[in-house]
Write a structure and sequence with these properties.
The strands form two sheets. Strands 2, 4, 5, 8, 10, 11, 12 and 13 form an eight-stranded mixed sheet that branches. A five-stranded antiparallel sheet has the order 1-3-9-6-7, with no helix packed on it. It folds into three domains: 30 residues; 189 residues, Immunoglobulin-like (Sandwich); 54 residues. The chain has six helices and 13 strands. The longest helix is centred in the first third of the chain and has 27 residues. The chain is α+β, with helices and mostly antiparallel strands and 287 residues long. The radius of gyration is 36 Å and the shape is elongated.
């Protein structure tokens, strides 16, 4: 009898201990990340970044950079954070990260604002990092369009070239956190790996392996330019020479036709003056 009671008590203790161990293991596991959802990640459904207005500036000038974002989902987006960041510069001779450019030679971002097509109020964003503008928005309803705008500021020492702007968008959709980024967030090797046909599962949205890139969708990059204007006097000089030579061609053609004696007489007179000028110039050099 005693052995039976001891066996039953042992079974109860072991079952409770096993339950505690399983609970500890479950709690210690990391939270699962959101899986790729073909509805969320479909290129025709992701937030539509469009109507980009990008400035072309001379060093020392400033101009507005703006775009619009449309929520194409049937549901609202919540807890949205959108970051626009200048990250790279390129010209004919070189390409470099913004980080290697001295701060005095970089363009920078200021005066960021946003507003909605449903609500006319303009929302001012405080800028902490001059390389980026960060927008925090509580909610974007279905079919609502928000407009983002910030000012690009340059100085006389700003390096010329094309500057690239990348975007990062985080939001909550139906209780699940989602992240979308633009091409500028990955190296060439990472991008080629994600777009290699052998790495793309069947039915992947946009024929891109989003799991490799660790995002739920791809949004566009953009750019703006900083360049001194090309001098216009060579163009004006070329146009003037073209007109002069065209006029001379017409005059010499009419002279050869011989139908305009007055023109022939005038040309002979001008040739005489030109020869006289040459002789005087030659005489002065010989003295």
């Amino acid at each position: 009898m005693i052995f039976v009671l001891k066996g039953a008590l042992f079974d109860i203790i072991m079952k409770r201990l096993l339950g505690v161990i399983i609970a500890v293991v479950i709690l210690s596991l990391p939270l699962a990340q959101s899986e790729i959802d073909t509805y969320i990640s479909n290129p025709g459904n992701i937030p539509d970044f469009h109507n980009f207005q990008t400035p072309q500036l001379e060093p020392g000038q400033s101009g507005d950079f703006s775009l619009e974002i449309l929520n194409r989902y049937n549901e609202s987006l919540e807890e949205i954070i959108i970051i626009a960041e200048i990250y790279h510069r390129a010209d004919i001779d070189e390409s470099e990260s913004l980080e290697v450019i001295p701060s005095s030679e970089r363009p920078y971002i200021q005066n960021a604002v946003w507003n909605s097509n449903l609500f006319g109020e303009k929302n001012i964003v405080e800028s902490v990092d001059t390389r980026k503008a960060s927008y925090e928005i509580d909610e974007i309803q279905s079919n609502e369009t928000i407009s983002l705008k910030f000012e690009i500021k340059t100085n006389d020492d700003t390096k010329e070239g094309t500057y690239f702007v990348r975007f990062d968008m985080n939001f909550v959709h139906n209780g699940t956190e989602r992240q979308m980024q633009s091409r500028g967030h990955w190296s060439m090797d990472e991008w080629e790996d994600a777009t290699n046909r052998s790495n793309i599962p069947s039915g992947s949205p946009g024929n891109i392996n989003l799991t490799i890139l660790d995002v739920d969708g791809i949004i566009p990059d953009s750019s703006f330019g900083v360049k001194k204007p090309i001098p216009k006097w060579p163009l004006y000089g070329l146009i003037s020479l073209t007109i002069i030579f065209a006029g001379l061609s017409v005059i010499f053609y009419l002279e050869e036709e011989g139908n305009y004696p007055g023109l022939n007489k005038w040309l002979q007179k001008q040739r005489g003056k030109l020869n006289e000028f040459r002789l005087r110039l030659k005489y002065r050099k010989s003295r």
